[in-house]
Design brief:
Elements lengths: L1 H24 L10 H6 L1 H33 L2 H4 L5 H22 L1 H12 L4 H7 L5 H30 L10 H37 L3
Helix pairs in contact: 1-3, 3-5, 3-6, 5-8, 6-7, 8-9
Length: about 220
């Protein structure tokens, strides 16, 4: 997991820097924005911010795991409930804990998502970029949280679509070979990742337009 987090941070930070650099190059007024060289020179800082983001996400997963473990211990453990497990109560808590942590993450994670913009556009250190992301003003922060929440809902829709497409061939599994089912699931996974990355770019573009509107200096 630590090695995977570092690799993800390097790939994600580099890709995000290149996407933002291209958005800057395609701007109608490129002279008013940071140069291409400055964008690329700040890529290590963006990688560090992405590593902080993935560590925060892993922390949210840990909280979810601990919450589900508590629900299982109090509703499914024979020592607590006897011979009959309280499956309904467990599922209620499972849904509540999952939705609560997901909503909280969707509402607050924009702070880490906007930090690369501050790092690139205001040319400040990583620590200062994180600190400034907490003091962008009520209106700007509200818009960022709103976009992040909408994109999180879109991600849920993509997950549901991937699950639906994955379950469609199950009634006809006898007509498929294991290799063909594996190829189908691989194609669905690739389609999900492509769509997910596309909406990440959409969110970056939305953040950039809000940035230009609320912090034009």
């Amino acid at each position: 997991v630590p090695a995977g987090a570092v690799v993800w941070a390097v790939v994600s930070g580099t890709g995000r820097t290149l996407v933002l650099a291209r958005m800057n190059r395609l701007s109608s007024h490129p002279s008013s924005h940071p140069t291409q060289h400055r964008f690329l020179s700040r890529a290590p800082g963006v990688i560090v911010l992405q590593l902080i983001w993935i560590l925060a996400l892993l922390g949210a997963f840990w909280l979810w795991y601990r919450g589900v473990a508590w629900a299982a211990a109090t509703h499914l453990n024979p020592d607590s409930v006897g011979d009959e497990p309280d499956l309904v109560g467990y599922l209620i808590w499972l849904i509540f804990i999952s939705l609560a942590i997901y909503i909280v993450w969707a509402v607050v994670s924009w702070v880490l998502s906007i930090a690369p913009f501050i790092l690139l556009h205001e040319n400040c250190p990583v620590g200062a970029a994180l600190a400034r992301s907490f003091s962008l003003g009520k209106t700007f922060s509200g818009k960022l949280a709103e976009i992040n929440l909408v994109m999180s809902i879109v991600k849920i829709a993509l997950i549901v679509l991937a699950m639906v497409f994955s379950s469609v061939p199950l009634p006809f599994s006898d007509s498929f070979t294991p290799d063909s089912l594996g190829n189908l699931y691989l194609g669905i996974a690739i389609a999900y990742l492509v769509a997910n990355d596309y909406f990440h770019v959409v969110r970056l573009k939305s953040f950039r337009e809000l940035w230009r509107y609320y912090r034009p200096s």
